[in-house]
Amino acid sequence: MASFAALGESTKSSRVVDELERRILTGELPAGERLPTESELCEMLGVSRSVVRDAIRTLAARGLVSVRQGSGMTVAKPDSSAFGHALVVLLSRSGLTMGDVVDARAELEVSLVGSAAERGTSEDWDRLGATLEAFSEAVSAKKWGEARQTHLDFHVGILRALHLPALDVFLLPMAEVIVVSSAPPRLEAEQDWEVETHYPILDALREGDPEAAEAATREHYRVTMAEARYGEFRSRPFNRVFAEVPWALP
């Protein structure tokens, strides 16, 4: 590795980040590989320990490096959680309401569901059907944690039926946002999960009918715009709802 000894402290840290990030992203440093120790990096790069620590903190925040006490530093496995959290932070500080977020998510899903109807396979729809049944059963059994997970799986399953691997990567960081924006106004009220509005979407997808799939998806989201019980929920700040989501539902 090149020495950065002649650079200023802040510039040194940035250059160390750039160098290690480049090596990780190009695969020169593969996932799971142990990095040199702090002392070794200091010697190799001609920088102080504080510069190395600053750089490693930045790389860890980007989800590229994992630091464990007693285990040293390793190249982290690909993980969208850091980016998902960053997206939630941006939304939380944006001043947007739940209605703003749900409407944006609705437009995204409506714009893609027609293509899913054309590109999806019978195996996709069988899996989606099983997911929908599991969702319905969880709501009926008042297993709210399972209901939330299967609800998320249903909507993500539609997008995965497009069979566009890069889109999967784009959307992975949105999973946390989808969890929050798909939460009903009252978590323990069966009717608020709107289970029945999901079946027309699945029927249209099975039939390979893009227009019907789009119409069914719009109707699914229209309920959250029109029903009175959603009024107060939609007006609430996104950050308030996110802070109150019970992540460990029974």
CATH fold group of the largest domain = Four Helix Bundle (Hemerythrin (Met), subunit A)
What percentage of amino acids are in beta strands?
Answer: under 5%
Rounded to the nearest angstrom, the distance between the terminal CA atoms is 51 Å
What is the number of beta strands?
2
| Tally of DSSP helical segments | 13
What does this structure look like?
With 250 residues, this protein is mostly helical. It folds into 2 domains: 9-75, Winged helix-like DNA-binding domain superfamily/Winged helix DNA-binding domain (Arc Repressor Mutant, subunit A, Orthogonal Bundle), CATH 1.10.10; 82-244, GntR ligand-binding domain-like (Four Helix Bundle (Hemerythrin (Met), subunit A), Up-down Bundle). It has helices spanning 9-25, 38-45, 49-61, 81-92, 98-119, 122-140, 144-160, 165-171, 175-181, 199-207, 210-226, 231-235, 238-244; strands at 65-68, 72-75. A two-stranded antiparallel ribbon has the order 1-2. A hairpin with a 3-residue loop joins strand 1 (65-68) and strand 2. The chain is elongated and about 65 Å long. 26% of the residues are buried. Residues 3-8 have low confidence and may be disordered.
Features:
250 residues; mainly alpha; Arc Repressor Mutant, subunit A; Four Helix Bundle (Hemerythrin (Met), subunit A); two-stranded antiparallel sheet; 13 helices; disordered N terminus
How do the helices and strands line up, and which of them pair or pack?
Elements: H1 9-25, H2 38-45, H3 49-61, E1 65-68, E2 72-75, H4 81-92, H5 98-119, H6 122-140, H7 144-160, H8 165-171, H9 175-181, H10 199-207, H11 210-226, H12 231-235, H13 238-244
Antiparallel strand pairs: 1-2
Helix pairs in contact: 1-3, 2-3, 4-13, 5-7, 5-10, 5-11, 6-7, 6-10, 10-11
